Amino acid sequence: MIHPTAIIDPAAKLADDVQVGAYAIVGGKVLLGKGCKVAPHAQLTGRIEAGPDCKFGHAAIIGCDPQDTSFDPATDSGVRLGSGNVLREHVTIHRSASAGGWTELGDDNFLMAGSHVGHDTLIGTGNVITNNCMIGGHVRIGDRTFLGGGAGFHQFVHIGDLCMVQGNALISKDVPPYCIALLSNRLAGLNVIGLRRAGFTPDLRRELKQAYRLAFLDGKSLSDALSELKKRPWEPETLNLIDALASPSRKGTCFPKQRNRPIIG
User: Fold this and answer.
1) Do 64 and 42 form a contact (C-beta atoms < 8 A)?
2) Strand, coil or helix: 213
3) Where are the alpha helices (DSSP H) in the chain?
4) Cβ contacts of 70 within 8 Å, gap of 6 or more
5) How far, in Å, CA of 122 to CA of 141, rounded?
6) 146-147 and 140-141: which strand pairing?
7) d(CA 146, CA 14)
8) CB 2 within 8 A of CB 8
9) How far apart are the C-alpha atoms of 128 and 146, rounded to whole Å?
């Protein structure tokens, strides 16, 4: 299960069935759960905790120091992964920049070749992050998002549940839950196909469309639209959208280019 050319620190803790490929390097503060696989030339360095069935692709580099000019390499921090995460070729994930901090992924995320996750980013469950995505530090990503190839995400932004982001998009503001984003900080409506696949009922999808329309397409300022939205009863999923609009990150929220355009989907 361990290739003879792999270098594994004796202090590393690997479950009995972990597989490590040729020329891979596993550091002394690495903990790998059952069923994990480390492909040839991958490097796991620093403090890493990975749950069962995680796969580290060829030449993936996980746990290196953050790209922060003020960072002290003596800082004790790490990368924590849930179960079933797939990190393909040349994926890079940097450890937290804060003492005792973690860059974290939940379960069943699929990071395609060349994608990068910056320090202190928190990623939920079931996300697909496609080739060459660039995710800055302190980004928050929800569950079941799809981030298109080559998209860039500025530090501190929030990406909500079930979002879809177009390839090569430039995102420096929050993408609210259930929305599609494209180009530079532009919303294009709700991710209706994603909502349908996620089991959202027709009634719930109609309600989300109504809330989206009130927030962005009725010609009101966002603050006035939120005042109107908060007067009405909504399902929990719709409240999730409203809460994200009411409490954005420090970066603010993406908007449609023209707020009176018809909703997509």
Assistant:
1) no
2) helix
3) 192-197, 202-212, 222-229, 236-246
4) none
5) 6
6) unpaired
7) 31
8) yes
9) 5
- Label the pairing between strands 134-135 and 116-117: parallel
Determine the Cα–Cα distance for residues 68 and 73; give it in Å rounded to an integer.
10
Kind of pairing between the strands at 179-182 and 186-190: antiparallel
How far apart CA 155 and CA 159 sit, in angstroms, is 11
Do 83 and 108 meet the contact criterion of CB atoms below 8 Å apart?
yes
Kindly report the pTM of this predicted structure: 0.94
Sequence-distant (≥ 6) Cβ neighbours of residue 229 within 8 angstroms: 211, 214, 215, 242
Structural domains of the chain ordered from first start: 7-138 (2.160.10.10), 194-256 (1.20.1180.10)
Give the whole-angstrom CA distance, residue 9 versus residue 28: 5
pLDDT tens, N- to C-terminus, the chain (265 residues): 999 999 999 999 999 999 999 999 999 999 999 999 999 999 999 999 999 999 999 999 999 999 999 999 999 999 999 999 999 999 999 999 999 999 999 999 999 999 999 999 999 999 999 999 999 999 999 999 999 999 999 999 999 999 999 999 999 999 999 999 999 999 999 999 999 999 999 999 999 999 999 999 999 999 999 999 999 999 999 999 999 999 999 999 999 986 544 444 4
Residue 184 DSSP label:
B
